[in-house]
Amino acid sequence: MFDKGFYSLGLQHKWQMTGSERHWLIPLKRNTQNEIIRSLGRNDKLVIFRSNPRARKLFSDLSETMTARLVTRKIKGKDYQVLTSMIDPLRYPLKDIIGLYEHRWEIELGYRE
């Protein structure tokens, strides 16, 4: 689980490729551009992100596009969106991803106290 300040397609790609079954989950930064390629449900989408030339220069094995799962969760009336590399909805049910995000949120609230 990453903080949105660590958003980087290159970093997420490198994290995922350095081991088997390594995944990431990160809150979506505002104004992040993506393209929906498939709807998995009302609050569950597969999206594509395009990497920029600078990122591909820094991370030589980074492709031009990266697929991720975009999950939206309403908390106290406000929509929160998270990205994850756990794109298979059968293997990684929406409720499990939401549970991970809620756990991450509780940790963040603990730091604020």
Automatic annotation (TrEMBL):
<protein>
    <recommendedName>
        <fullName>Transposase IS4-like domain-containing protein</fullName>
    </recommendedName>
</protein>
<dbReference type="InterPro" id="IPR012337">
    <property type="entry name" value="RNaseH-like_sf"/>
</dbReference>
<feature type="domain" description="Transposase IS4-like">
    <location>
        <begin position="2"/>
        <end position="112"/>
    </location>
</feature>
<dbReference type="GO" id="GO:0004803">
    <property type="term" value="F:transposase activity"/>
</dbReference>
<dbReference type="InterPro" id="IPR002559">
    <property type="entry name" value="Transposase_11"/>
</dbReference>
<dbReference type="GO" id="GO:0006313">
    <property type="term" value="P:DNA transposition"/>
</dbReference>
<dbReference type="GO" id="GO:0003677">
    <property type="term" value="F:DNA binding"/>
</dbReference>
<dbReference type="Pfam" id="PF01609">
    <property type="entry name" value="DDE_Tnp_1"/>
</dbReference>
